[in-house]
Amino acid sequence: xxxxxxxxxxxxxxxxxACTKDENDDMNTPTSxxxxxxxxxxxxxxxxxxxxxxxxxxxxPKSTGTxxxxxxxxxxxxxxxxxxxxxxxxxxxVLSIEPSPDNDxxxxxxKIIGGSFSGSNASVSAAHGAALGNDFSSIxxxxxxxxPTTSTMDDELSGIWFLDLSSGSPMTGxxxxxxxxxxxxxxWTVINGTPVTSGTFSMVDAADDAAPYSGSDAGGPxxxxxxxxxxxxxxxxxxxxxxxxxxxxSIEPDPDNSPDPFVFKPLVGTAPANAQDHVTYDMMxxxxxxxxxxxxxx
Length: 298
Fold this sequence. Notes:
By secondary structure, the chain is mainly beta. It has 2 domains: 32-133, no CATH class; 140-290, no CATH class. 12% of the residues lie in helices and 37% in strands. The chain has helices at 2-27, 84-89, 287-290, and strands spanning 32-40, 49-57, 60-67, 79-83, 92-99, 111-118, 121-124, 140-145, 159-161, 163-164, 171-172, 174-175, 183-191, 194-201, 225-227, 246-253, 264-270, 281-285, 293-297. Strands 8, 9, 12, 13, 14, 15, 16, 17 and 18 form a 9-stranded antiparallel β-sheet that branches. An 8-stranded antiparallel β-sheet has the order 3-2-5-6-7-19-1-4. The longest helix is centred in the first third of the chain and has 26 residues, at 2-27. Mean pLDDT is 91; it is low at 1-27.
């Protein structure tokens, strides 16, 4: 009789315990969710920089975590755990470049790609409003070799000018969209394997911001360009011969803390080995080859 009473007393305890466990299971809803990145054309991280992802929740950026990129383009991390409620409510994803270490909890001004979520995915590119916000599908470029800032005629293949001389008169050679604040275009010439700047600019029909290598005999034309005839940087000898050289237009952060071309290189053109001065050469779109893009999933 005593044993039967003990068994009867145990039954409600077992039922109560089971109910409590089921209720706890319902309360263990995950508080974080996975954000996965599948990105291409990201440039290798500098030693003092890192990438940082952001989701936009009710108009406010919230960090999803940082990562670096090696010389082969491999991301150090592609999956991030993010607050599930924020992740579900996010409207956009934006990728920025931040200092490392970084004491500022807000995103930097260098936002290179972004995209709006449609369901679980976002296609990200530089065309997003938080990044460059421009359409580069119809860009074009031309350049010539000439040295208008010197009086001598034996160095004409030592200068590059981004203009069109095919009509016989200098005309605008670059068809590029206006950049948002915080960005500038920069011209480059790859000389003996090394990119050498021809100056930064915002307008394609005006002189660029500097002429560090030009001569002093005369002023250059009202277009971006440079004569490589003076003050040669280490490893170069000016005047030079740009036959076979490659001209590049990049998009740089402004201000820019790096002497090297940034990841965005929308136009590239290579002159023939037997190039002539005052002859117009074409540039080709390099958007697909240099602009970062990809998908983000949640």
